[in-house]
Amino acid sequence: MAQKLPRSVLWLRILLFVVAGLTFVFSAALFVLLGSSAEAFGHALFTSLPGAVQLLWGLFVPRGGRAVFYGVLLTEVLLVLHTLLTLPGEGRIGQLLFPVAILALLSRPSARNFFLAKDD
């Protein structure tokens, strides 16, 4: 990494990696609990997709740019909307913690300047 990342961007990247890791651990546990079948593999693969997307965004964060900014923003907004839409049925409000924290870090002036000041 040639340049030093602002603190908010560094914490944003760390949270993206943490969420990706937790998602992969949850998917592996789901696969084990459901049994080693094709259906269980499909469920585990489907639940690991948000983690894979967040892992990729975490890897692209040091590059900066508008595409990374809007990609992370879109991913987290979709996760918040999904959680809010499934909230009455499942009641998992704790799922909002990481996406809202990432959105808060992304909206900080230092993070906006880091991402939006770069030309793609």
UniProtKB/TrEMBL annotation:
Keywords: Membrane, Transmembrane, Transmembrane helix. The chain crosses the membrane at residues 12-34, 40-60, 67-87. This is Integral membrane protein. It comes from Thermobifida cellulosilytica TB100.
